[in-house]
From TrEMBL:
The keyword GTP-binding applies. The gene is TUBD1. Belongs to the tubulin family. This is Tubulin delta chain isoform X5. It comes from the Eukaryota. InterPro entries: Delta_tubulin, Tub_FtsZ_C, Tubulin, Tubulin/FtsZ_GTPase_sf. It is found in: Cytoplasm. It comes from Equus przewalskii. Keywords: Cytoplasm, GTP-binding, Microtubule, Nucleotide-binding. SUPFAM superfamilies: Tubulin C-terminal domain-like (SSF55307), Tubulin nucleotide-binding domain-like (SSF52490). CDD domains: delta_zeta_tubulin-like.
Length: 377
């Protein structure tokens, strides 16, 4: 049975209030999602070890790209359905969050449908924001005419700073054999929280690099403040934001309609590369005030190191975080999509291809829950 909307529902009303404006709702627990039949396209890469275990499966789709992102989500589900009881699956996904001001009218529909699908079928989602990457190109790399190649180069730098080889343990000279599995073990302690973000420092143009020197104390001080203030780059960091004092309510425990300030983390993974990595002081990242109360800092913070420099930086650090960083942009995407859906704008373009209104409502419900869960950390 379809949901029939009578009029537009305000964005600021919670999901239960929104449902009051819907006639004849089908039972949420009985919604049946249509399954697509397809063949695996050649551009997807599945790598197998000798035990027929899928070690990783990856592509970088934009959520706004309806065709490729939906195929990606469907392939992901098909892999799990086909191999779930025969092999061990370790799935990690990398996503590009679309530009907030992009004039693609249905990009928010595509985003919520794809993200909700992938959230169910993936173990972790490593999310990049196009707006943040574009600012890095403009402000840190000093690029005047920013091209797709420039954006891709920044994304490649961020991914490389995380997935280039690191030593498997303190004092070890053996590299990690399964970095994706280690990443999820360190950062995804609960299946309800899967959103991962990446921050890098330093990141600058070659001209600026020639006149720059770095210390671990300076790099980690800036990186820590980037984390707690939810800054995507070191320029423009808000130094006024501080972790909440013990005994006071966290700023993160606010209603969805109020802006989050302090960025509470579930878990953080710090990757250090370059000269004197073992001399870096990491105590700032072990502060219990940075983390949710249900996970001890000893379990919430991990560090990977290697003395091999990355790119042209003598010292560099990357921070992969499972935190509240995506609450505001995700809530904005869901809100825009809901406003369109409540007036049934462009819904017919999806229903004629088999995507029903229950699928939209299912996606809204899941992503509203994701936002609410991260807000209550």
């Amino acid at each position: 049975m379809l949901y029939l909307l009578t009029h537009t529902v305000p964005r600021d009303s919670p999901l239960k209030e929104r449902m009051k404006h819907i006639k004849h709702p089908a039972k949420k627990d009985s919604l049946v999602r249509r399954k697509m039949e397809f063949q695996l396209p050649g551009l997807y890469l599945l790598t197998w070890n000798l035990k027929l275990s899928i070690k990783h499966y990856q592509r970088l789709p934009s959520l706004a790209d309806g065709n490729m992102a939906s195929i990606q989500a469907s392939v992901k589900n098909k892999v799990r359905e086909t191999t779930g009881r025969m092999v061990e699956i370790n799935v990690d996904e990398r996503l590009i969050l679309p530009f907030g001001n992009l004039k693609v009218i249905v990009q928010n529909y595509n985003s919520i449908l794809t993200l909700s699908h992938l959230y169910r079928s993936s173990d972790a989602l490593l999310v990049h924001e196009n707006d943040a990457v574009h600012k890095i190109c403009a402000k840190l790399m000093n690029i005047k005419q920013i091209s797709f190649s420039d954006i891709n180069q920044v994304l490649a730098h961020q991914l490389g700073s995380v997935f280039q080889p690191t030593y498997s343990a303190e004092g070890s000279f053996h590299y990690r054999r399964n970095p994706l599995g280690d990443l999820m073990e360190n950062l995804v302690p609960h299946p309800e929280f899967k959103m991962l973000g990446v921050r890098n420092i330093p990141q600058m143009s070659e001209n600026s690099l020639a006149y720059s020197t770095f210390t671990w104390a300076g790099l980690l001080k800036h990186l820590r403040q980037m984390l707690i203030s939810n800054a995507k780059m070191e320029e423009g960091i808000d130094w006024q934001i501080r972790p909440p004092l013990p005994g006071l309510p966290s700023l993160s425990k606010m209603s969805l309609n109020k802006e989050l300030h302090f960025n509470t983390s579930i878990a953080n993974l710090l990757i250090l590369r370059g000269k004197d990595v073992h001399s870096a002081d990491l105590e700032g990242f072990k502060d219990p005030a940075l983390y949710t109360s249900w996970l001890e800092p000893v379990n919430a913070f991990n560090v990977w190191r290697t003395q091999r420099a990355f790119s042209k930086y003598e010292k560099s650090a990357a921070l992969v975080s499972n935190s509240q960083f995506l609450v505001k942009p995700l809530d904005m995407i869901v809100g825009k999509a809901w406003n369109m859906f409540a007036s049934k704008a462009y819904v017919h373009q999806y229903t004629k291809f088999g995507i029903e209104e229950e699928d939209f409502l299912d996606s809204f419900a899941l992503l509203e829950q994701v936002v609410a869960s991260y807000c209550t950390l």
